[in-house]
Each structure stands twice: as C-alpha cells, then as structure tokens.
Specification:
The protein contains ten helices and seven strands. The protein is an alpha+beta fold. The two termini are about 35 Å apart.
Length: about 250
Amino acid sequence: MQQQFENAFNTIKELEKINACLAGSSMLGYKEGWNQDIDVFCYDEQSFTALLYFMHYNPIFNILDKLELHKFEDYTRNKKSSLESFGVISIKFMYNLCIPVNIVYKKFGTNIFNVLSSFDTDLIAQGYCLQTKQYLSLRKSTGMVVNWNVFNTSFYKSDYWSVKRLLRQFDRNIKYHERGYDLSQVTDKYISIVEEIILTENFYKSDKGTKYFNDTIEQFEVVLKILQVWKKDLKMTPEQILILKTLI
C-alpha cells in the first residue's frame, strides 16, 4: 500500500501547468493504518477543471462512490456544484482502486499560503506547490506535539461565523490524538476562543435579535462543555461529536 500511496503522490506532484498544491496529511508521508487521503487544492476553477478531466481520462484514476460520481456529472454536465452556495467543491477519485485522491477548489484559496493558513493545526499546514515546485511549511511545533495554526486569522476573530467555521475542523484533533499526537495546545486555544464568544455582550436592539443572541450563546455553552470534557478525558462519544457538528 505504501508503494501505491507514493505512486499516487508522485503522479500528482509531477504534473505541469496546474495551479494547485498538495497539502494536509499526505505531506507527512505514508503512515501504516492511517487510511490517508491525498488532497489537492486548486487555486482557480480552471485548474480544478483541468485536473478533473486529467483524472477522468486517466484509467488509473476512477470514481467509485455514487455521490462523488453524481457531483462529477452535475459539475461537468449541468454546471452545478456547491461553489455557488458554499464557495467550495471537492470530488474524490481512487488511484488504482486503493488510494483516495480529493480534488478541492475553494474560492479564496488562491495560493499555497491561503490553503495552509486555513487549517486549524500546524501539523498539516505543510504543502507542495505544483505551480512553483516549492515546499512550504507553516509548522512551528515539533515531534508529536502539535500547536494551533498561528497563521489562521479565524483564531484572532471573535465573531460567531469565524469561530463556527474553525470548530468544524475540531474532529481532526480527535483523529490525530488517536494517532498518538499531543494536541492539548490546540484544545486550549479552541476553549479560549469559545469562552471569549460566551462573554460577548448583546448588541441587538430587537426581540428577534436578542433571541438569536441568546440561542447562539447557549449553543456555544454546550460546545464549551464538550470541549472541556474532551480536555479532561481525551474521549468523545459519537453522540457528542454529532451534537458538536449539529451546533456548528
């Protein structure tokens, strides 16, 4: 499986005239038992489309999942995608039927720094730019200790949407803890920004606005309790994960 992973990684790495980067866990190298994906982040829609068709017409890449096939057909035939509503689209191929390869395009991920700075942990804020053939790492932690990504500007904002967007990545902390990494610094940072949100004052004047504020604060209070339990026990039940995802 390691050879297949490396073949897939190098096939993408050697592509020319594609404005994109390899980033995420694949930059840590092959890890036995991780079931790693290879993520390719395109800087523009033209590169996304070019890479999409490159894999579509390359017999070693296949779309096996019905949902991914539906997304591919909707994008290529009907010009429909999640880009309009969410600003991001991804389609998963399988390399040689065994290595998942995700092609991703985010509207604001226009270069490798923008892509890497969007991750919550610095462990995976490492990438290889297909455009410049250069590596970039934003990681300042070492070994098995992981820090929060100091280049992610959402950590410095106290608005609801920025914090919720960050919290959608929290399950990655659970995954990497199970892989043996120490993410206590990341957890502490999450807790601190949620506490900051809870302490914000209600600036709404209307009853409707006040209700929205109170409901939102209640949601963050539940999130805070879940994060505090995680910090103490380093365990999170499937129900807690579901609640966390539902709230954010």
